[in-house]
Each structure stands twice: as structure tokens, then as C-alpha cells.
Amino acid sequence: MSTEAIFGSSKTEKINQFLMLMKDPDVQPTFRMYIENVLATSELNILKRLKVIETMLELNDYPVDDDESDSTIPKQISLLSNQINEVIKTNNKRSIMEPIPKAIHIGMSKTTARAILLFKDVIEVAIEGKDQIVIESRDIKNYLTNHIEPEYRVGNVSNFRKVKKDVLTTLKKLLPDNILLDKKKYGRREIRLVFAT
Fold first, then answer.
1. Which of 89, 93, 70 is nearest to 81 (CA)?
2. Torsions phi, psi of 56, nearest 5?
3. Where are the domains of the chain?
4. Cβ contacts of residue 46 below 8 Å, gap of 6+?
């Protein structure tokens, strides 16, 4: 087919001709070389960026066998997960709670901010030198209504129990290995918080 015939054809015909050429074993090596050249010379620095990502994920020793390559990413995720768990076990009181800026509300829901402040202001103070503490429902309510930073205080709300439960549930999600939500065995069976190191 002549060049004039190709350029004179419709867009759909051009695409179909291109796709047919890509399947041609004689054309495939040239096409691959073209793609590799585009990747290597792109202004987006694709290969350099991939190298940085591989180094950060410690995947820069890419395996040759296909079987190994399939298991590399899940294996790395598992290793990273284990490392994170070890850091939390070693330093569980400071794990995810440490880097809290003054303007805690930026990019964070009020519930999450309240949960983190409850941890820092009440739990961290009370747990000092102990293996386990129990914080009663009335103490949590008192903190959330009177002692937390003013912008996070719970005022007159119709369902304070729900606000408290949301805060405690969020804290449990942040520190699942350390937080236990426990109902009292007697009285109004209020939920209390048990924290263990």
C-alpha cells in the first residue's frame, strides 16, 4: 500500500492498519524499540521516576524469573506491614500519635482530632508507668465537654453517646492492638475504654 493511500484513508482505517502492523512479527521489534526510546527520552523522566520508586520500595533487585516477579510486590507489602507492626509494638504509645501539629483540624475530621487529643491528653498521662488503665465513661464525657481544646468541645448535642462512641471507635481503629472498648457489668452499662501497652 502506498504512503498516499495510507494518509488519504479515514482515521478508523489508519487505526486498523496500525493495529494490523503491530501484530506483524517483522514490525514488532521496531515498534518495541520505538516505545523504549520514547520512555528513555521522555521529558517526564519516566525511567528515573520508576528507579526512585523501586529504590524507595526496595524493589531495585528486580527478579529475572516471572514466578518470582509475581510474588515480589505482595512479599514487599507483607514485609513492610511486619516492619510497621514492629515499630508500633516497640513504641506503641507514640506510634501514629506523635506528629500532631497545633492546627490539628487541618485535613482531619473533628472526630479523629478528638480521638487523638483524648489519647495524648488523657491516656498518655494516665498510662505513665502502668501496663493497663481503665478510663470510665464519665471521665471521657468530662474531657470531651470541658477539658479538650475549645474548638473540639462537645456542646449541647442531642446524642452525646453517639459522639462519644464515634470518638472511641476512631481511637480503636488508630490503635487496634492497644484499645479495648468494654461495657461495665453493672449500672447503666456505659462503654469504658481500656488501654494496655
1. 89
2. -65, -35
3. 3-89, 110-196
4. 39
**Residues present in the chain in total:** 197
pLDDT digit string (tens) for 30-76? 878 878 777 777 787 777 777 777 776 666 555 544 444 444 555 65
Tally of CA atoms within 13 A in the half-sphere of 135 that contains its CB: 23
Cell 478528638 found at: 114
pTM score of the predicted model? 0.47
CATH for 110-196 (1.10.10, 2.60.120, 3.30.70, 1.10.1060): 1.10.10
DSSP secondary structure letters along 122-175: IIHHHHTT-SEEEE-HHHHHHIIIIIS-GGG---S-S-HHHHHHHHHHHHHHHS
CA 74 vs CA 71, 77, 80, 170: distances in Å = 6, 5, 10, 28
